[in-house]
Amino acid sequence: MKILLVEDDPMIGDAMAYALKNIQHAVDWVRDGASALLAARTQHYDAILLDLGLPKMDGIEVLRTLRSTGNATPVLIVSARDALESRIAGLDLGADDYVLKPFEISELLARVRAVVRRKTGNANSVLENGSLCLNLVTREASVDGVAVRLSGREYALLEALLIRPGAILSRQDLEDRVYQWNNEVESNAIEFLIHGLRKKLGAKAIKNVRGLGWMVAKSA
Amino acid sequence: MDGSKIRVSASFQFRLGLAMTLLLLVAALLIGVIGYYSTMRDAHEMQDDHLVDMAEMIDAGNLTVEKSTTQASTELEDPASHVVIELIDPARPAVKTALFPDNLEAGMHDLQVQQAEWRVYVRQTAAHQKIIVGQLTEVRDEIAQHAGERTVVRVLAIIPFLLFFQIVILRWMLKPLKNLALELNQRTADDMRELSPHELPAELQPFVEAINGMMRRIATVFDQQRRFVADAAHELRSPLTALSLQTQNLAMQEMSLQAQLKLADFARGIQRATELVDQLLSMARAQLSAPDRAGATSVQQAVRQVFEELMPLADHRGIELGLELQADVSVRANLADLITVVRNLVDNAIRYSNEDSRVDVIVLVSGDAVMLSVSDNGPGIPVAEQTRVFDPFYRLLGSGQTGSGLGLSIVKSIVANWQGEVVIGFSDLAAGTGTVVTVKLPPAAAL
Description:
Shape of chain A: elongated
Number of strands of chain B: 13
Strand order of the largest sheet of chain A: 2-1-3-4-5
Number of helices of chain A: 8
CATH topology of the largest domain in chain B: Heat Shock Protein 90
Mean pLDDT of chain A: 86
Strand content of chain A: 15-25%
Number of domains of chain B: 3
Distance between the termini of chain B: 47 Å
Order of helices and strands of chain A: EHEHEHEHEHEEEEHHHEE
CATH class of the largest domain in chain B: Alpha Beta
Strand order of the largest sheet of chain B: 1-2-5-4-3
CATH superfamily of the largest domain in chain A: Response regulator
Number of helices of chain B: 8
Mean pLDDT of chain B: 82
Distance between the termini of chain A: 25 Å
Oligomer: heterodimer
Structural class of chain A: alpha/beta
Low-confidence stretches of chain B: 1-6, 66-74
Largest sheet of chain B: 5 strands, antiparallel
Low-confidence stretches of chain A: none
CATH class of the largest domain in chain A: Alpha Beta
Radius of gyration of chain B: 48 Å
Largest interface: A-B, 34 and 35 residues
Structural class of chain B: alpha+beta
Shape of chain B: rod-shaped
Number of domains of chain A: 2
Largest sheet of chain A: 5 strands, parallel
């Protein structure tokens, strides 16, 4: 991938550029807003990593100008400004993600990949979490590479949980994903499905959170 | 300072009311005394006139004294007003029963007759007769006194009405002042909107102007502080980010196992510094929070986000997180603040609870009060330290935890902005172990 890195802090910029090049990405590093705009207009990039506090032109202004001129390159804001307002402002202006400094390189790279995938329209067809794997096309699940057969409802429930590992889904959330809106749902239907899934995938595959719902633990 | 003195001097209405009431009472007293005496004097004069009238009427023959034809001196007694009339005719012999002496000059006299005081009027007729009209002084005084007393009663009867109208008028006049105080009172600490000088008496305008000026200055300082915090966040995080990235790049190099372990220690040190900076900024922000534009925030949603965030830490220590909530409630706080409060409490509970135990978030709703408690079954906090744990940078010694010591201070600052309360105690009172922290949340309508 070819990435435009916009960062005015030499130490941070140097370390980021090094990390990106280290895993075979092409990196152009500019240190101010005006150069960032010029580079984005003249070159094609797969993603732009944009700091907010920049000399000459603020990062928010760079983003606004880019989007108003029809440039749709995926932009990840990488900033130390953690105030809710600046996050919302950035995302409202068309940023694709907001990464707060300091961050783990691996997380930044994962987010870049996710944004690029979303932008190019081929969202991942396989959801993976640890040893658990769910193919969204063939609707097959596997644990440690061993295929497991799931019923339609079990599949829908597992998919809902695997889309965002670590997120807690309430009974209502799960019922909404698994059942048609006009279907009468029995009170313990979700427990029944989860019981079945645990039998097939292992007791620890789905975690119960008292008082809130269920989740699939985020694998490290 | 002397509390009672402040209370009395603080109430303008009380002092004004007191002064007006005293003035009113003194005036009523004066009017009563003067009225009493002048009415008595009038009554005496009227009764004198009455005696003169009666004498004239007898003289003119309008009032006949029936027994006078057979006796030289006739008495006529009016039992009600105790008036005695005698007719003395020098042509006839004196009568032994005559009450008054017959040698009186014409005109008014005060006489002592048979141990009684009399007021007597003597009229000399054209026929050299004497008409004597007398009245007991005691009776006259009694009549005069009654008249005086009636005057005083009338004055006294008006006093309650005057006092009532005085209170009503005072209230009405001081209402703008009271409304102003109420408006200021109901504001949150950081509500810096200017007061409207409309509908206020001219005397209050300078004060309102001064208060508004002060608020503008405070708002400016607040703004500067907020900007400073935002800048500080950036400036402190940048070097930490660089350090963290360099460490991560270094970790990708080939190195001995010993070097890897040392590098991991180093990375943990950076992590700790980063957490401290986050908590410091969180603290500064809580203390400088912008006017709350918060709508209704779901408690369940906040707890869910906190659990999602802290689940890895809880799993690592083998702690089961749980929420007890009858039905979701919404509170008047913004989501970020509510999450910060719940996160700090749950994070503490996970860190200080025993391994392989549980941490409970319990939400109780009674009336409009929403109480959120977080309890663990760790060793608990000694009573002597329970108030001190809210102090910034205060940490329990020997806990082996490397927190910033700011978590509970942040909670306290945010809760103070909500005008709520934080209470800390033992989750197992009998054994004196475990910690439960209860926060009173700002209420809002149920979802």
